Amino acid sequence: MIRVLLADDEAMIRAGVAAILASDKEIEVVAEAADGREAVELARANRPDVALLDIRMPGLDGLAAAEEIRKLLPDTGVLMLTTFGEDEYIERALGLGASGFLLKAGDPRELLAGVHAVADGAAFLSPKVAHRVITRLSGSRFTRAATARERVNVLTNREREVLVLLAEGLSNADIAARMFVVEGTVKAHVSTILTRLDVRNRVQAAITAFEAGLV
């Protein structure tokens, strides 16, 4: 069972999102919060697998809450849900360690897929968000590519193989099956990759792989 914390300051939105999540028998909403501070406290108390956070909330906003939750509970995946698709929100959310970004106007199936992916240790961007990220990266691709290639060069061949599969959106379990190794070995490789690339999460590692031309 995937245990989810849901935070949104609009009661109607919370009810709608909770209803969508309830349609999946493998997902359970264990707590609901109306603001970022409450979300952090409920995350501390319930230790969910996934924290699904709105960005704009009173008091402590979703971005600040995401940062605190990632520090308190590194095993809890953070998935941002918002009506706003501006680049600054996307970049800040991913930079703070969020594993995924969804738009409220997206397909409900994206929400369920995102929760499953993040709970499984993978990253998830809704198609519209992915397009914005890739378009932004392409604008400065030549200057960023050289830097990315230098960073990727410190990886072993095996680590590069894991990085490519990670960038394709595979979970640790899927990567392990693909490479015929145990999941613990993949987790160790991913941890080393994040450290050597000097990135905070799988999304940033995937972006580095894209910039370096590995995918």
TrEMBL record:
SUPFAM superfamilies: C-terminal effector domain of the bipartite response regulators, CheY-like. GO terms for biological process: phosphorelay signal transduction system; regulation of DNA-templated transcription. Residues 3-119 form the Response regulatory domain. Pfam families: GerE, Response_reg. It comes from the Bacteria. Keywords: DNA-binding, Phosphoprotein, Transcription, Transcription regulation. InterPro entries: CheY-like_superfamily, NreC/VraR/RcsB-like_REC, Sig_transdc_resp-reg_C-effctor, Sig_transdc_resp-reg_receiver, Tscrpt_reg_LuxR_C, WalR-like. The modification 4-aspartylphosphate is found at D54. This is Response regulator transcription factor.
